[in-house]
Structures are given as structure tokens and as C-alpha cells.
Amino acid sequence: MFFGRKKNKNKDNYQEDEMIPVVNEQNTSNNKYSTNYFASKRVKQRGAPRCKSLRKEEIGEYKIEVGLGQLPQSYKVLSNLLIQSENSLEQIDHLVISPYGLFIIEVNNLSGIVLGEETDPNWHQSISWRVKTFPNPLLENQAHLELLRKRVPLDETLHIHSFVTFSRRCDLKVISESVFYDTDLLAVILRRNQQEVLSKGEIQSLYDQIERINIQDINLRNEYAAHIRKQRIRQRPKYGDIRCRMCQKAVSERTARYCINHPDKFAWQIYCVKHQKELARQLKPNSAYRDTPLHTPME
Predict the structure, then answer these.
(1) Are residue 99 and residue 206 in the same domain, yes or no?
(2) Residue 299 lies in a domain
(3) DSSP secondary structure string, the chain?
(4) pLDDT tens digits for 246-258?
């Protein structure tokens, strides 16, 4: 009798015709708070499964997309563009076509302290006790612009603006007119309305040309997402990613964290131990090295 009850209990979990397991709604209602819920339940609608960092980027891009929807009707917005280059695929987060020019927008949803300069190949992100590096988004935007010029015939006199936005979750220490918080994006775009360059028909024609080169195939987009995941695994933080501002010598995370925690001494720059000492000598009020440039060797 005990074994018979057990069999009947198992049969209750299946439908009689197709023997499909019956899912308990109370158990699945709590699964949406797990980290892999949206990746596993919405694969068909949203593409391949994504890691946590990719989902953060998607949230930041969606936030910007909602904000760009408030632009005037004369502005055309293209989001999540995937364009074929010579060797690979390139993604443009947002592209705005306006009567006053084009706006290429790169979105970053990072936390912590973000520091770097326009010409640096890598920027730095400091999160509590970790210091990570990531590629310069301004240089990535420049590469996207060159690819767009190759695929679409753009007039050389057309004004093209490259912007990089960060969320308010981070403390932005990058000094550049093209890098700012995402809450200021609409004001910056609407401020660039000095002279009309494109007519209404030219805007629609340019919109159609860019829409044709945009890859819509879900399989190719899934392959691109898988490629990005593998690339993130290869680019995990390792010793040698962080370099000294002066001598380009490899710097440990502890040394870099010391420079970031003392902005009054190093002005949000990262130096090796040798140049830290030289800079500390120059900052002393009665030091003989006060007027000596930092890049010159000390005698």
C-alpha cells in the first residue's frame, strides 16, 4: 500500500495525456529573483543567455532608449545596431539622426570610481578594494564612426558627435566634453542645435540606409553575444593591465588603489612607487625638488 501511494503521488504531477510535468506557480513566482531567470526563461524573445554584466549593460541601454524617446519628432533614433565589418561584427548602442547632425552614443552602466583620459587605451574602474581596466569607450566610438563611414556614404561636412554616458551609480573622474552622466544626455543633444544640416527627406533617407545594414538575424546576434562572453573571460583582470602614467610599468592593484585613495597627491592618476616618491618630494613646501618636472630624472 505504501508503494502504491507513492506511485499515485508521482502521477499527480503529470497530465494524463502527454505526461507533461505540472509546474507549481508558487515555486516559479520566486524564481524571477534569481540571477539567471531572464536568461533562461526569455531565450527565444531576447536571444542567447547573458551573463550578469551583459544584463547590466542592457538595463543601461534600455534606460537611455526610453530617454531618447522624448526627443522631438524630427529626430530619428536607432538602438542596438549590429553592423558587419571586415573581420567581425560591431555593435553601436544608440545612433541619433537629427537635422543638426549625427550622435553616436556609447552606454556604460558601471559602479565605483571611473577615471582615465581621452587618449588612454584603457580606463580604470575602482570598486572597493578592486581596480579593473576596460577599453577606452571614446576610442571604440571612433572605430564605430569609421565603420559607419565605410558602409554608408556620409558627407564630410556632416557634424558627427561621439558621446559616452555613465550612470549615476559611478563617481566619474574623466574630464572630457564627450563623457558625462546619462541624466544629462538629452540636454547635451538639444544644445547642439546651432545650424540645420539635414532636411526631413535626407534624415529619412539616411535612416533607411542605416536600417538596411543593420543585422536582424537572431542567430548572428546570438553568435555575437557568445563571442562577447568569451572575450570577457579572456579579458579578466590580471597583473600587467594597470600601468604607471609616466613609465608604463606594471602596477599592482594595491599601489593603484593607494593613488586613487589620495587624489590630493596624485590628481586621479596612477603612478608606480618610484614616481610616487618623486611626486611626494615635489609637493613638500621646502623641497629642493619642488620645481623639477616629474618626467625628468632626479639627480
Answers:
(1) yes
(2) yes
(3) -HHHHHHHHHHTTB-TTT-PBPPPHHHHHTGGGSTTHHHHHSHHHH-S---HHHHHHHHHHHHHHHHHTTS-TT-EEEEEEEEE-SSSEEEEEEEEEETTEEEEEEEE---EEEE--TT-SEEEEEETTEEEEEE-HHHHHHHHHHHHHHHS---TTS-EEEEEEE-TTEEE----TTEEEGGGHHHHHHH--SS----HHHHHHHHHHHHHHS---HHHHHHHHHHHHHHHHHT---TTSSB-TTT--B--HHHHHHHHT-HHHHTT----HHHHHHHHHHHSTT-TTTTS-TTSPP-
(4) 898 899 888 999 9
